[in-house]
Amino acid sequence: MAKKSKQFKGKKKVTAVSSQFDKWMDLIGHQIFQGDYGEAVTNCERLLNSLPMRASQRVDVLAQLGTAQGMLQNFPQSYEAFSEALALDPNDAGLWFNRSMASRFTIRFGRALRDVERAIELNTRSELVEQEDLFQQGLKLMEAWKWEEAGQAFQASIDLGDCLPQPWGNLGICLLMQERYDESEAALKRALVIDPTYTLAKDNLALLADTRRTGLPDTVAINQPFKGSKLKQSITYIGLLGPPTKWTTLNPCWE
Prior knowledge:
two-stranded antiparallel ribbon, single chain, globular, mainly alpha, Serine Threonine Protein Phosphatase 5, Tetratricopeptide repeat, 69% helix
């Protein structure tokens, strides 16, 4: 009986440790989502200090650390975090893609290119084509003002592979047009977590703040890209494979 009791306690201990790790990761994810990047870095480093050097959980922590450091524009530290994660899991396409961003901002242009190529090489899942089709479907639904259906298409695209900012940015617009402002803000911020330099998401976050106060515009028109004049206040989205396009809330034109 004593032997069985000892084994049972051992299992309880493993479960407790795993549960504690999940709580820390949830906290770090929430801090990144809320923009508390400094706190996220501190907690990532604290968690890394408590994990064995070859522990598989370090990959997830390092990925979050790389993201938080990137958001703080600490690109050398971001590069080092993603590099350490890749040393533990060299077959993760998302890690290669994210390190390519850090490589770019540490003037490692050749490395950035190779990292992207490696990410593409690893991302051979059959879902990729379906993901692209869902994204394009979402763009068409946006043009038809079918905001809820478009949002569902973008969310389905994200569910198949969450590594690009554009689906999140467009989902944010769809949610905004449904007056789901908190969800819209969260989606736009998620786009910036993936790519801190994604200026379109930054611009749309600024517009979201104004829309919260003034409400949605009375009329909106969506035409062909690159026709009409340039406007200061606008909601912007771009396609994965096509040229940048802009939808505006002020006048019926694209930039």
